[in-house]
């Protein structure tokens, strides 16, 4: 709540609102003025297309925090250094409203009207799939700190990159680890929301179980706003050892509440995405403890690098200071997307604004980039099903534990904590 | 659990889900039947009620149930103030009053939803309760989630209270007179403005109360209202427009169809079956499931 | 020339327990003007509605010019040659008088613009042909209602209170038009409460009471008939007793 | 009263609107301006202009059934979505060019609208509104579970040279789509004008809307005419759906079949002015620009959402015949005062 109040209309927006009124009805005139093309050369300008309203506003909000924090921190550190001079970073936002059509217009606005140097990507695969072709056409670099849907990388867009490994990898690897916990699960019930990301998640969970030779009792997809008591009742009658669920935070909350109401109690729930967000914990109001999740990053994690933020813990502190909430991996990956640009621009060595050829060069640099950050090592695949997706950062299973439902790493990794398993209340 | 228990559990789930829809449908049926307002904001009253629960409950010891009377009173007052506006746009010499009311309340709904999103952000919020958690298991039948049972009971009770008010009290008689014929009611000395405002206030209060319970069952979020708006519409046409007790039947039908489809045909099909069913039912029985509604 | 044009046989229409039209058997001869009277609620408008396809009769038949038209859709009956007007003469909004006329589904062979102009001239409302129809006076609206029906070139017209609420001068004009049309061969059946009006124009009168057809005859015959007096006196509306 | 010189701008405007050939003049000038507009605009503003054109056309298509025929179609957006998916299926599965997809989508939706129209148009008022709404929701759910629509993964359209099937069009760009929308929209407006304002068919449609019984008694086959209006308006929505899908290149049931598509058409037609030619044009432009530009330019706040809500409420309160009513001078200071007085009277609740 606090961070939203902080975002009340500032002066710049106000000017834009005033300009907007003028633009109404006289598109032509506004078009000639170019609406915001008055950019100077003293800053790197990034366009941020993300969904602050509509169905996917949860995640949109998280990505915004990630991008904002990167901008704030880098500007406090003097900006991006190119050939001995420093250039501050400027972000300009457009709300894609979880709507591909609005997202596509926003992308075009960023490129032709705002004349940004590069774009930070939208939240949700539907919007990404509408934005990416525009990046292709305009040859503008585009990194998304949140795009986890495998569909995006299958399209092989040359100008689109993603810092979060696709969910096919995250959910599968975490699921396999959770299935290896002792006592080993013999059966699993897989449910999910019938949405592009969620369905990919649920099917990755199912694949993981089948790989491990665990019986999959059901693979049950539902509309996101369904009443989850039906799923819970079916699952309860199947009596699985574990329940896996692919969806967004809202559906996790509804599912777990329904499970609580119907006394459905498997050895553990594994939900992805978002158990490590305060949205999820607040939504369940203290009943989140014991839930398994997957992540590629945690505040407590050790990573090799520390560009801009010294460590994961430093980043988490900065995030808490700024937003009064613990960051999750989407936020971290969004900040990391900024750091990747930072590194790439330093390598490029060109002052803003970037020309078309410089933008193309930036894309080539991104293809080969290797950045060590608080978030982990970032590189992008150059071929295959995960083309331009960062598959380097390794996924981990987590569990919410302790009084304040802190997410801790569980499973087989060296730093893993003991899992509360089978989960006792 | 054996499969007969899954069946009985699914029926329980369906009936209780129907109970949730009843809490939303009751007030809506009243404003439609009596005030002839098709209120697009109905789901937003649910959302506002749930939000009130999420924000006020932590201040009153974390007990969402304590918010119920407050929500009723607060939204009763809100409704009383909003009604004259709706009344104004749906009367007079305006063309297509039905549509005017619809669009006005569409604007109202957008305003409510947008305000909450802007002020409180997109997060899902918990509406806490200590009194109602978990479910009561009844051997052989299944589990009755406490909070859902209470919600369904409240839904049915408010319907009964409504019926009592409408048919046994002076105020109710006045409201029914208005529904019959505004001009005659006015001639009879009924202050129609007052009673219409009261009726709308009661609707807003009741729907927000339903929202607190829905918040207890699920959670509160700024975008939650839309689906309840849709369900409220479907509830009243299946009930038969203007026929209040039909609300129970349509709640049961919608709840059971949803629950049984999810368990026996597949979760993906739930809304396809539900909306398809509503469409077909409307074509074959426009006068409602019981055939007691009025056909326009 | 006493050939029957419009004939109902045992026409019955029920609404739940109420029988609004009870086995009405009634024939209208070609070229006559028939009055249809009866106390309020005696089923006159229901009878019109059953005749013209707005209600599907529960029993009985309607025959027009030798064709059984029972249960036909109303627009087909209209095209067959039975026109009607409504008690409340509402022009179609957002349209001019002429456009109101052109909305009528005329037979394909007719030049509708020419015909509309002729009718408007005949009814003396051609000077407002291109004005907004909603701005007309009550009497003009009645004339427009009549004009629209004439677009169909019907053999038979059913009129529901053609002069109600119209100032006497204009009412006389309407009657004049009806007579003229009748002279040209149009058959009429008219629901009318104003007995003075009726007296001037009708050839014969049919009386309905409580859904039944009780008497038929000339105006004089009917107005002295005991059953008719009883029907009117028995009802609350004693002011409507024919004199 | 008054001589030529005393005329205010509004009077002149009204005089212009009142002229018989004014509409044709306006249409002609508008078409010319639109045709040269993209040469003055950047790519982004061309996109915005083509979006506005599309919504004008969509609002007008709803206005045909909703405004002229008086049937509150709450499921009109279903045809926008079905048109999008049929176009996509033809292009992806049958590998035919866009033009073929669009034509097949039009024909498919004509048949669908006819089949749906027969039983649904028997309902009226709120029943028709809710039935069509349920129908549209069912269609959306169906698209989410079908294999051929890509289900919940959605559908990506083929792009690049040769996919359009229109000679001389290489890689379809914003210019191409702008002119495509322009042709569709101007076509829709012209069709609406000749069909509803200048033909007996249109008079009959209005007659049915205003007094269905009277219309029937005048030989008008209301069922048939309503069905025709429904089919025409649905096919137009389908054509826009197909064109938009090819333009966006990625479609998903939750986007192209979203209820908000229908809601927007209704709001645009109503706020502009129902049952008029100009209304949906004005409403479409205003609402689209307000919506789209605010989300793009005020991108890090959602304050514009409640403001749009307020705007809708205020318009309904003070300008019930829509913006076109304001232009016609129906919302003077006196009217507003009168409105406020009447509103105040209704607060007599104690």
Automatic annotation (TrEMBL), chain A:
<dbReference type="InterPro" id="IPR028082">
    <property type="entry name" value="Peripla_BP_I"/>
</dbReference>
<feature type="domain" description="Leucine-binding protein">
    <location>
        <begin position="44"/>
        <end position="383"/>
    </location>
</feature>
<dbReference type="InterPro" id="IPR028081">
    <property type="entry name" value="Leu-bd"/>
</dbReference>
<keyword id="KW-0732">Signal</keyword>
<protein>
    <submittedName>
        <fullName>Amino acid/amide ABC transporter substrate-binding protein, HAAT family</fullName>
    </submittedName>
</protein>
<dbReference type="InterPro" id="IPR051010">
    <property type="entry name" value="BCAA_transport"/>
</dbReference>
<dbReference type="Pfam" id="PF13458">
    <property type="entry name" value="Peripla_BP_6"/>
</dbReference>
TrEMBL record, chain B:
<keyword id="KW-0029">Amino-acid transport</keyword>
<comment type="similarity">
    <text>Belongs to the binding-protein-dependent transport system permease family. LivHM subfamily.</text>
</comment>
<dbReference type="InterPro" id="IPR001851">
    <property type="entry name" value="ABC_transp_permease"/>
</dbReference>
<dbReference type="GO" id="GO:0022857">
    <property type="term" value="F:transmembrane transporter activity"/>
</dbReference>
<keyword id="KW-1133">Transmembrane helix</keyword>
<feature type="transmembrane region" description="Helical">
    <location>
        <begin position="12"/>
        <end position="35"/>
    </location>
</feature>
<dbReference type="GO" id="GO:0005886">
    <property type="term" value="C:plasma membrane"/>
</dbReference>
<feature type="transmembrane region" description="Helical">
    <location>
        <begin position="66"/>
        <end position="86"/>
    </location>
</feature>
<feature type="transmembrane region" description="Helical">
    <location>
        <begin position="230"/>
        <end position="256"/>
    </location>
</feature>
<feature type="transmembrane region" description="Helical">
    <location>
        <begin position="98"/>
        <end position="120"/>
    </location>
</feature>
<dbReference type="InterPro" id="IPR052157">
    <property type="entry name" value="BCAA_transport_permease"/>
</dbReference>
<protein>
    <submittedName>
        <fullName>Amino acid/amide ABC transporter membrane protein 1, HAAT family</fullName>
    </submittedName>
</protein>
TrEMBL record, chain C:
<keyword id="KW-0547">Nucleotide-binding</keyword>
<dbReference type="InterPro" id="IPR032823">
    <property type="entry name" value="BCA_ABC_TP_C"/>
</dbReference>
<dbReference type="GO" id="GO:0016887">
    <property type="term" value="F:ATP hydrolysis activity"/>
</dbReference>
<feature type="domain" description="ABC transporter">
    <location>
        <begin position="6"/>
        <end position="235"/>
    </location>
</feature>
<dbReference type="InterPro" id="IPR003439">
    <property type="entry name" value="ABC_transporter-like_ATP-bd"/>
</dbReference>
<dbReference type="Pfam" id="PF00005">
    <property type="entry name" value="ABC_tran"/>
</dbReference>
<protein>
    <submittedName>
        <fullName>Amino acid/amide ABC transporter ATP-binding protein 1, HAAT family</fullName>
    </submittedName>
</protein>
<dbReference type="InterPro" id="IPR003593">
    <property type="entry name" value="AAA+_ATPase"/>
</dbReference>
<dbReference type="GO" id="GO:0005886">
    <property type="term" value="C:plasma membrane"/>
</dbReference>
<dbReference type="InterPro" id="IPR051120">
    <property type="entry name" value="ABC_AA/LPS_Transport"/>
</dbReference>
<keyword id="KW-0067">ATP-binding</keyword>
<dbReference type="GO" id="GO:0005524">
    <property type="term" value="F:ATP binding"/>
</dbReference>
TrEMBL record, chain D:
<keyword id="KW-0812">Transmembrane</keyword>
<dbReference type="GO" id="GO:0005886">
    <property type="term" value="C:plasma membrane"/>
</dbReference>
<feature type="transmembrane region" description="Helical">
    <location>
        <begin position="176"/>
        <end position="196"/>
    </location>
</feature>
<feature type="transmembrane region" description="Helical">
    <location>
        <begin position="99"/>
        <end position="117"/>
    </location>
</feature>
<feature type="transmembrane region" description="Helical">
    <location>
        <begin position="267"/>
        <end position="291"/>
    </location>
</feature>
<feature type="transmembrane region" description="Helical">
    <location>
        <begin position="22"/>
        <end position="41"/>
    </location>
</feature>
<dbReference type="Pfam" id="PF02653">
    <property type="entry name" value="BPD_transp_2"/>
</dbReference>
<dbReference type="InterPro" id="IPR001851">
    <property type="entry name" value="ABC_transp_permease"/>
</dbReference>
<keyword id="KW-1133">Transmembrane helix</keyword>
<keyword id="KW-0472">Membrane</keyword>
<keyword id="KW-1003">Cell membrane</keyword>
<dbReference type="InterPro" id="IPR043428">
    <property type="entry name" value="LivM-like"/>
</dbReference>
